[in-house]
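To fix ideas at the outset, we first show an illustrative case, written as a sequence plus integers encoding its fold:
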Amino acid sequence: MKNKNGQAYMFLTPFLILVTIFYVIPAVLTVVMSFTNLDSSFVWEFNHFKNFIKIFKDPNTLVIVRNTLIFVGVAIVTTVFLNLLFAVLTTYFVKTERYSSIFKAILMIPMITPAVVYSVLWIWLLEAGEGGMVNRVYLSFVDSQPINWIAKYPMQIVLCATILVNIAYGTIIFSSAIKSIPENQFKAAHVDGAGEWEIIKSIIIPNIRYHIQFIALWEALGLLTNYVTILLITNGGPGIQTEVWSLSAYHKAFNDQQYGYGAAISLMLILVVLVLMILMNKVMQKQNER
């Protein structure tokens, strides 16, 4: 038994070393750094809770919190709705696996496209001048001046770009969940004269409710921590119209070189993410108990 344990630890050691170097140590440093006024001079001077007090006194904090809530809330609701819609269409209504697989493969294209390439495509499509693809289509119908779409509708643009990336994962999860529903439930509903909407409302949604909760929490985790699409398309602008909490931490740390302040913003985000992870764990436990 001791030899087996020794072998297990030996195989785990490289993994544990990598996790410690790239995850544990940076996490500990972030916590320590959040209580310092570390900046470009790289002098570690502890300032206790001044960074956190500064966050609450910053007049932009409320705007950034509002942007974050709008971004995360709208993206979650829209993504989960589209996930459910596409899953029902491709699994319940379209019985041919071939067509269903083709549609899901198309949905996966934005997800597997590198973030930089994906964002550049959005910028190219929405170019402010007459050369932009969207402006070309728009000007072919309307006699007007070209529109700077990203400047005029920044939050809507980053929401659309983000939602398109996130659709595929939830759709695949929901499709698998719908396939696992016993066929006799659908047959019994049809015998009782239930319509399609009644079947969706009374059979499909109740059977996949834990999957819906899981995807909603999973999306929340990703949306709170991932700012790459916003950074590349709008960089938080115009002004701070699309500045979200995670992007604010990045800007404070790497643009303004206020590393301690940026770490404090990140630490507050980490606490929110930990709460969501606990909720996700409870949802998964309930699902396993079924």
